[in-house]
Amino acid sequence: MRNIILCIALILIVLLAGCQAQQTITAPTPVQSTIEAGAAAKSIEISNFAFNPEEINVKVGDTITWTNMDSAMHRLASTSGNEIMSDNLQKGQSYSHKFYTAGTFEYECSLHPSMKGKIIVE
Ligand SMILES: [Cu+2]
After folding, report:
1. In the sheet where 63-68 sits, what is the strand order?
2. How far is the CA of 89 from the centre of ligand 1 (A)?
3. Lower CB density within 10 Å: C or N end of the chain?
4. Helix or strand (DSSP H, E) at 96
5. Rounded to whole angstroms, how far apart are CA atoms 17 and 105?
């Protein structure tokens, strides 16, 4: 009698565990949502003292994130105006900027002015 109760208990545990496992597998994966419809996030890598890509086309409302992959520090600055202006970026640090107006925005690294980049916002 005791064995039967143990058996039933074991079967119940296995069944419950099975149910939970199935729930985990069939749980819907969340759909990645953007805060604003149509707005995109673009990224530019700063590596080997260059912006990669050096020139990029984006749409109004897009956000660009620069990430410094160099051991050297970099600092972004518009070459005219002040649309793009970051703090000093250490290795692994990022700077993001959202573009609200169309136009061509040229920038450089103010610590290494030979590093040039261009953002074309359409
Ligand atoms: Cu630099």
Report:
1. 50-52, 41-47, 63-68, 94-98
2. 9
3. N
4. strand 94-98
5. 58
Residue 77, token pair as written in the block: 């600055």
Q: Domains in the chain, start-ordered, CATH in brackets?
A: 41-121 (2.60.40.420)
Q: Which residues of the chain have pLDDT under 50?
A: 7-8, 33-35
CA 69 – ligand 1 centroid, Å? 11
Tell me, what amino acid is at 84?
I
Gap from CA of 46 to ligand 1 centroid (Å): 8
How far does the centroid of ligand 1 lie from the alpha carbon of residue 60, in Å? 26
78-97 per-position pLDDT tens digit: 999 999 999 999 999 999 99
pLDDT at 34: 45
